[in-house]
Design a protein that fits this description.
Elements: H1 2-10, H2 15-21, H3 31-40, H4 46-64, H5 73-80, H6 93-108, H7 111-116
């Protein structure tokens, strides 16, 4: 929920936010799209996006497959890709999952509050101004 809360805290406070975030068919209704949106909006770092995506995939393994454990197959491989402190590098997959989850939670727990300070507002002086896209030349001014 912290990812969803971070997005909601950033977007303009209006009815459209709920349409984007709530419900099965909402454009930002899945954890995958929420992670991508937070990352694209700069609300989470590259590392936080990577960790969140791995944790999401582990969750999906348990939710959609039968007889899944932390100690074999895809779940073990995913957990071995989680960032954990050096002291936990040799830990079992379940311990890595728990540690990585807690470390991410600690970083994210205050994110909605931090993000709300940067909340978009309709009519902001910066609203509507576009930064040049890095792959497109900026428009030239006429004299």
């Amino acid at each position: 929920m912290l990812i969803c809360d971070a997005i909601a805290a950033f977007l303009i406070d209006n009815k459209s936010v709920e349409k984007l975030l709530a419900g099965f068919n909402a454009p930002l209704g899945s954890l995958s799209t929420r992670i991508a949106a937070c990352h694209a909006l700069g609300l989470i770092t590259d590392e936080e996006a990577k960790q969140s995506d791995i944790l999401r995939k582990v969750r999906n393994e348990f939710a959609h497959k039968i007889e899944v454990t932390f100690e074999n197959g895809a779940v073990k491989d995913l957990c071995n890709n989680l960032s954990v402190p050096e002291s936990d590098k040799e830990a079992k997959a379940r311990a890595k999952f728990a540690k990585a989850s807690m470390l991410l939670l600690i970083r994210m727990i205050s994110r909605p509050s931090e993000v709300s300070q940067k909340r978009l507002k309709c009519g902001d002086k910066t609203h509507g101004r576009r930064r040049p896209h890095p792959h497109h030349p900026s428009p030239r001014r006429r004299r």
